[in-house]
Specification:
This protein is α+β, with helices and mostly antiparallel strands. The protein has 20 helices and 23 strands. The protein is globular and about 70 Å long.
């Protein structure tokens, strides 16, 4: 058991850093008269996947045009004028948070390069876990990198491939990378979309009239009015020509799917379909599993809005305890991490969430949230309930303890800053000052998404953030740990 940090220590972290964040969302469309406008609309629907920067590239049949900017989609592509220069029947777009490579315009996607075979624009969701090793090899051969994004490694691998066709060059490049990727790619000959062999990151395909659409989530298809056709399969590479011809390739042969299970827990919008399942229904099922596994005598089930709402509905329905909005969320609060002072950042929870005092006063409350990352927000939410007069505050979490980092495109704190990475559940309960604390079990989570249990010999999802069992090699991480170990070795002094 780890010593509980003080409230002063907890306040050192901002609210924004207390949620796991997807790195980005991608959107691509080919065969549409207003491709860039459809792309911007699709990116609006994916805004929750990345709120730091946005970019769109289009191809007008002669040249590629790219516009990128920091901030939200609406900050950069809210008018006809802002899209006017992005002409053409094909476009790809990207919304991002920074994990690998950091923030700044030079890392905003889509990334574009003029290759010997023509223009190449790529939007990437995921993380290449051997990017540093590959970059070192490329630089040693004379490659010059313009960004610090791992996505640029893919461009260099394509550029240096000796295969004759663009499709073969892209396949050759992808055979050398490890980790997770969902890509939408534009070339002068059309569009390609692909997923890593385990399908860790999501990608779906749809049709909008004669146009073909790719997106990180089905909700983006809904918003642009496209029909959902199917998900891009793990390890599949789809190419679409300008005449609408669609070709599917399986360059990696038969692969074992391991999609990210956290899409069901938090990343995807609840009105999306992920891995053939309604995300909303999965989240309600998780809440029902929680109620069966960790019942509680209480007066009200209260979600931590907005991400805890579906699971709280499921918990309430299964337990028979009334569901109530005991916390009201303001949707007009700026991101807390950009505030200029510590006191302003620490006020973020109060400005974003406020207790419904007359409802919770004197009541035994079951709080439902999707996850606990650092634990600082959970602590403040529990304290908010107590300050509002709640008689008891019990905390239930709609995912297993998040005790391990993600290296596949999710912005996860290092393990030493993950509450479950350094405490057992009893210590976590003490840290957040709840009357009780419980998480859904890993088998309960699998049951909630339609499986009997986790197959420990061959898991059906990537759940490394809960189990520490990573489905791919982590070459860069292993190299970094080896260097750290070498630096920590004692130095032999010569007498």
């Amino acid at each position: 058991m780890t010593t509980t940090p003080s409230l002063v220590d907890a306040g050192a972290f901002d609210l924004h850093g207390d949620k796991l964040r997807e790195e980005c969302g991608v959107f691509g469309i080919i065969g549409a008269a207003d491709a860039s406008a459809a792309c911007a609309l699709g990116l609006h629907a994916l805004q929750h996947r990345g709120q730091e920067a946005v970019g769109i590239s289009s191809f007008d049949g002669a040249e590629f045009i790219t516009r990128r900017g920091l901030g939200h989609v609406a900050d950069n592509f809210s008018s006809a004028e802002s899209l006017a220069e992005l002409k053409g029947h094909m476009a790809v777009g990207h919304v991002r948070y920074s994990t690998t490579g950091g923030s700044g315009l030079r890392n905003v996607q889509p990334l574009y390069a003029d290759l010997a075979s023509g223009g190449f624009a790529v939007a990437h969701n995921g993380n290449i876990s051997n990017a540093m090793q590959l970059k070192q090899e490329l630089v040693s051969k004379g490659a010059i990198f313009q960004s610090t994004s791992d996505t640029e490694v893919i461009i260099h691998l394509v550029a240096t491939s000796r295969y004759p066709t663009m499709l073969d060059k892209l396949t050759d490049a992808l055979r050398m990378v490890e980790g997770a990727y969902a890509l939408t790619v534009m070339t002068p000959r059309g569009m390609a979309a692909c997923r890593d062999p385990m399908g860790i990151r999501p990608l779906v395909m749809g049709k909008l009239g004669d146009a073909v659409v790719f997106a990180s989530e089905t909700v983006a298809l809904d918003v642009v009015g496209a029909e959902f056709i199917r998900q891009v399969d793990p390890g599949e590479l789809i190419e679409v020509d300008f005449d609408g011809t669609i070709r599917s390739h399986r360059p990696f042969g038969e692969t074992k799917a391991r999609p990210c299970i956290f899409e069901h827990v938090y990343f995807s919008r609840p009105d999306s379909i992920f891995n053939q399942r309604s995300v909303y229904e999965s989240r309600k099922n998780i809440g029902a599993e929680l109620a069966r596994e960790s019942p509680c005598e209480a007066d009200l089930v209260v979600p931590v809005p907005d991400s805890g709402v579906p699971a709280a509905i499921g918990y309430a329905q299964e337990s028979g305890i009334p569901f109530e909005l005991g916390i009201i969320r303001s949707h007009y609060v700026g991101r807390t991490f950009i505030q200029p002072s510590d006191s302003a950042r620490h006020a973020g929870v109060k400005r974003k969430h406020n207790a419904n005092r007359l409802l919770v006063e004197g009541k035994r409350i079951v709080l439902i949230d999707d996850s606990i990352v650092r634990g600082t927000t959970s602590l403040k939410i529990v304290q908010m309930m107590r300050d509002a007069g709640a008689a008891e505050v019990h905390f239930r979490v709609a995912s297993p303890p998040t005790g391990h980092g993600c290296y596949y495109g999710v912005d996860t704190p290092e393990r030493s800053k993950l509450l479950a990475g350094r405490m057992d559940i009893s210590a976590m309960q003490e840290f957040i000052q709840a009357d009780s604390l419980a998480f859904v079990s890993i088998d309960g989570l699998y049951r909630a998404v339609g499986l009997a249990s986790r197959d420990n010999s061959c898991p059906q999802y990537c759940d490394a953030c809960f189990t520490g069992e990573y489905p791919t090699p982590l070459t860069d991480l292993a190299g970094r740990k080896e260097k750290e170990a070498q630096l920590s070795l004692p130095v032999n002094k010569v007498a």
